[in-house]
Each structure stands twice: as C-alpha cells, then as structure tokens.
Amino acid sequence: MPRIQKNDNFIDKTFTILADIVLKVLPTSKEEKEAFYYYRDGMSAQSEGEYAEALENYYEALQLEEDPYDRSYILYNIGLIYASNGQHIKALEYYHQALELNANLPQALNNIAVIYHYQGLKAIDNKRINSSKKMFTKAAKYWQQAIILAPNNYIEAQNWLKTTGKEYSVD
C-alpha cells in the first residue's frame, strides 16, 4: 500500500516519517491508520500531478475513514483534482459534500466562488448577461462566507467584492 516516494523533498520525507511515528503512537484503529495512509499517498500523488493515482487513494480513504472532519478534507482534495482538470460541476459536488461535513472550510468556499466567477465570465463571453449576473451573485455569496471564516485571506476576492459593489460585512 505505501507509495514509493518519488519526491526527494526534505519536507515531504520529514512529514512522512513524523506521520508514521504519530500513527504508531496514537491509539487508532487499523482502519483509521489505513485510511490515513491512503490519504497521505493521495496527497503525495496529487502534488506530483498523478491525479488518477491520487483519486484512487482518496476513494480508498473514503471507504475506510469514518470521521466527518477527516472525510471533509478527502472530499475537498477530490474536488481540487476535478477543478484542476476543468470538471467544475463535479468539483462543486465534492466541495459541497466537504462543506456538509465541515462548514469551516474557507478554502472550499473560496474554490466554489472561483468556479462561479469563472462561469460568470464565460457567460459574458457568450452574451448571456442574466446568467453571468447569477453566477457573480453566487460567487459573491461564497466569497463572503470564506472571508468571514478567514478575514485575512482572499484579498483579491475582497477587492472584487468592493469594486463590484457586492461588499461584505463581518459582524
């Protein structure tokens, strides 16, 4: 099961060693440990651009992982892969599933907003003005939520919200 480390990056190797030590020390079930190994191997494959292998590992991790918080990150990473491959609808599905399990994922909210913003731009290119307005409104809604959770992040989104008059308020 363990993935052969192709990356000679010191930080990646250090993380792998530390993760293995922590897993041996923590009182976790065999399934939880196995799920983590698949998740870690998925992250490694994803960072190397091996998306098919990463997806296989993430799907295996989902079969084993029971903790909703951990599952949310697996789902989020699956969404990242689909988004990077231009499969935006599928990416949105996985980002929303991740948020159902963990509402405190500003990065998922941001990525949803980015997709809606992109769709809004495409609608403008295709002269579908009403559709573009709807997409931009959706983008604003998700960026507002992301900024509430992470006020120091997403500066470009904050500027976009200000310049388009879709200002947000952090109460």
UniProtKB/TrEMBL annotation:
Would you identify the family this protein belongs to, as annotated? Answer: Belongs to the Ycf3 family.
Q: Which Gene3D superfamilies match?
A: Tetratricopeptide repeat domain
This one is known as Photosystem I assembly protein Ycf3
- According to its UniProt entry, this protein's organism is Symphyocladiella dendroidea
Please report the residue spans annotated as repeat (TPR).
35-68, 35-68, 72-105, 72-105, 120-153
Q: What is the protein's known function?
A: Seems to be required for the assembly of the photosystem I complex.
Extract the Pfam families matched here. TPR_1
**What is the primary gene name for this protein?**
ycf3
Highest taxon of the source? Eukaryota
The record's keywords, sorted A to Z, are: Chloroplast, Membrane, Photosynthesis, Plastid, Repeat, Thylakoid, TPR repeat
Query: Where is this chain's protein located in or outside the cell?
Result: Plastid, Chloroplast thylakoid membrane
